[in-house]
Specification:
three-stranded antiparallel β-sheet
């Protein structure tokens, strides 16, 4: 059972942790930082998939969809 494919680890390591923590210090808002991190992750996931055509996922969900889910979750958390 493969839970991570390609750059799927990026969701947990970079998308949720490093980007959101850095943006929180700039924006002053946790929700805004997660929204921006989710948007960046979504764009990066879309770009990765369009470049090489391989799968980049975690728990069988492509990382561009994780980015959308993180951004929408941040909007709900406002």
């Amino acid at each position: 059972m493969i839970l991570l494919q390609g750059w799927g680890a990026l969701v947990g390591l970079l998308g949720m942790g490093v980007i959101a923590a850095g943006l929180q210090s700039v924006t002053g808002s946790r929700a805004a930082s997660f929204f921006l991190a989710g948007a960046a992750l979504g764009v990066f996931g879309w770009w990765l998939t369009s470049q090489d055509g391989s799968k980049h996922s975690i728990f069988w969900v492509p990382i561009q969809y994780w980015g959308i889910a993180i951004a929408l979750g941040a909007l709900v958390g406002l």
